[in-house]
Target: Glycosyltransferase 2-like domain-containing protein
Amino acid sequence: MNPKVSIIILNWNRWKDTIECLESIYQINYPNYDVILVDNSSTDNSIEKIKEYCKCKIKVQSKHVKYSYLNKPIKIFEYTEKELKTLKNRSDEYYKIPSSKKITIIKNKQNYGFAGGNNVGIRFALNTDSTYILLLNNDTIVEPDFLTELIKAAKKYRNIGSIQSLLLKPDGKFIDSLGQEIHIWSAMDKGINSAYNPIIKDREIFGACAAAAVYPKEVLKNSGLFDENFFVIFEDVDLSWRIRLKGFKSVLAVNSVVYHKRGISESINQHKTSDLMEYHYNKNLLITMLKYYPLSHLFGSKNLNKTIFYLKKTILYSLKVKKTLELNRIILSNIWIRISMFNHPLLYEIQKEWIIQ
Model:
């Protein structure tokens, strides 16, 4: 039995990457999936270009995946946010079409960032007959068996909260992510930019990088979706903390291979950012630590100056982008969240096991 998987792809002004990603998806060997493409109010005519691809009017030019006519044309089911609110069931026609020959396109009325944009797709998928929800960056290319291997791992391990594909750079020689790694002052993708040597066994990880991660639908109902206050960066780390605090674990499925170009997200990680991105980076780092890290680490004599540094930096950029009131609201709400977790039975155990000193 092959449980249905909703594959959610978020697009924002990068339709060429998106159709290359779609072309690789429509050639996978897993038979039971839905493709849900969420457009975050693109300004580059992305939706029309993606429709042209579905209608065979644009061929994918790619070094990594060969264009195929076999799954074309792709039937388009298109909705606005407003139409989604009144949509109760998909049409009978939708269910008669094979997975590889249909797509659902959701048009957001504005750019909600990575967190909010994906949440639109997740909420839609939660009301379908899918068992799993897969988040896939639009700058990825998948191996034909990547989803088969992800679901194999999902079935194999008990109490699973998320499963991440092995993420490699497009040349396949270097690692993009072996899962999330939690450090004393940040979080990052484990193994990034290291030379890739084949890994034989799946391994437990703190959490899954949302560039290619599958979540059981019931887990997301239990842990909640992305915190939209993050907008972009560390939103998947925050979700991984909440999944852990619900008692679930995460696994890297080493036989599920996805290639990640890591364009915009890489520039964020390297701090080559605008004032707005600097605001989100510092804000999100600060509130993640405020919610989940040992308070003795944040406010003890050894690290207090560093905490103050990050706070000042966050305030500075909030002033630059005129989001000071937003920042105050977000910090206060997360203080209350932390207060509510003071007696959480798993928080100390997770801190002790996963935070790298």
Summary: Residues 54 and 266 are 29 Å apart (CA to CA).
